[in-house]
Amino acid sequence: MTLYIAAPFGNYLKSEVARSVTGSFTLERRTGLLKRIATTLRYRDGAWYNAIGLRNPGIEYGLQSYSRIDNDVLSLAAIEPGDWKRFSEIVPYDIDVELNLSCPNIEHFENYTQGIDKFLNDERKVIAKLSPHTTKNALDDLIQMGFRSFHFCNTLPTDNGGKSGKDLIPYVEKLIRYFNELITYKHNLPAYHFEIIAGGGITSIENILSYQNLGANSYSLGTICFNPIKYLKLIRSYRNSFYVLDNEPVD
Ligand SMILES: Cc1cc2nc3c(=O)[nH]c(=O)nc-3n(C[C@H](O)[C@H](O)[C@H](O)COP(=O)(O)O)c2cc1C
Fold it and tell me: Helices H, strands E: what count in the chain?
């Protein structure tokens, strides 16, 4: 079981009980982050909306700031065909990566996932971060390609940008259900072969337990990171509920 701090919050937050996901990084830097935050990041009716559109300093910076000691995960996003191949050539083979296949604020080129299999090897974890609208067939394609780590899910596309928070919960639940059906009835594989990261609307340990009951075995924190009091409370409960048990010395 792993707790992740989702991109881009993992760029700024570290915790001894969680892994920070840094990024998302594109091949080239994309300027205008502050302007996009000022003009698109909004809190409305209990949900955060953003249309930041992957403004970031680029993969070269991402690799320089990547911390092996902290066990970071590097989040990557392709903008043009050929980007996944190029990323797979420049990111060291043993750095764990999350492939952001689902940013709602960029246009996805045709066959967006072409080339992502190049990341798969025995030395690293490769997480596929998916959209709330991912179909069962698309999920099945990734399982067949050899993906073993899935992050359900990214923000919900809306006219005001990607929406985070509680509205994602039914989508995450649906994707976990699709996943369970696929591995049980089609692939005949046990769930422990896979990492299912549930992320969307987590603000309490109860949300984590509820996702766990459905079959998730890892969890990801997003916009709760905007609220330091709630974030620290959840980290404390997580440490008390799971982390000590997992890390207790075995006699
Ligand atoms: C301002 C903002 C920027 C985000 N940028 C990224 C990003 O660069 N890469 C990514 O994979 N997800 C990004 N996300 C999505 C979050 O990682 C997370 O998946 C989403 O907020 C849902 O989780 P939550 O309901 O716990 O917030 C962003 C979310 C917000 C609010």
Answer: 8, 12
How confident is the model at residue 3, as a pLDDT?
Answer: 97
Q: Give, in order, the Cα–Cα distances in Å from 174 to each of 97, 109, 113, 149, 226.
A: 24, 26, 22, 17, 26
Is residue 48 a part of any domain in this protein? yes
All residue ranges of the chain with pLDDT < 70 are 243-251
E-assigned strands of 131-212?
149-152, 156-158, 161-163, 195-199
In a domain, 171, yes or no: yes
Domain range for residue 105? 2-229
| Structural domain contains residue 40 | yes
24 lines ligand 1 (CB under 6 A): yes
SS3 for 53-67 is CCCECCHHHHHHHCC
Q: Are 183 and 191 in contact (CB under 8 A)?
A: yes
182 CB less than 6 Å from ligand 1?
A: no
| Cβ of 102 below 6 Å from ligand 1 | no
Q: What pTM was estimated for this model as a whole?
A: 0.95
Strand 97-100 relative to strand 126-130, pairing: parallel
pLDDT tens-digit map of 61-84: 999 999 999 999 999 999 999 999
User: What total of structural domains would you count in the chain?
Assistant: 1
Name the closest-CA residue to atom 3, ligand 1.
8
199 lines ligand 1 (CB under 6 A): yes
